Amino acid sequence: MTIGTVCTRNVCVSRRGSALASAVQDMTNRGVRRAPVVDQGGNLVGIVTIDDLLTPLARNLTALAGLITAQPAHEVSMSAL
Description:
The chain has helices at 3-6, 20-30, 50-79, and strands at residues 14-15, 34-38, 44-49. It is α+β, with helices and mostly antiparallel strands and 81 residues long. The protein has a single domain (3-79), classed as CBS-domain (Roll). It has a 3-stranded mixed β-sheet.
């Protein structure tokens, strides 16, 4: 048996510099928790994992939740004009 007989042939790859949302979407669509990250030349520069993505995604959700909380107060003050 060789590595080639057990490895994935069509690997989910993320490109360095691509959007966070793109990596999340690609990994979700493929059902993988890890993806190699390559540069423009196709050289491996790292591996991104779901765990790596959770912190920035949580920050974005926290910011969104803050907007939802702030919006009604802003609408009330604007309606007073």
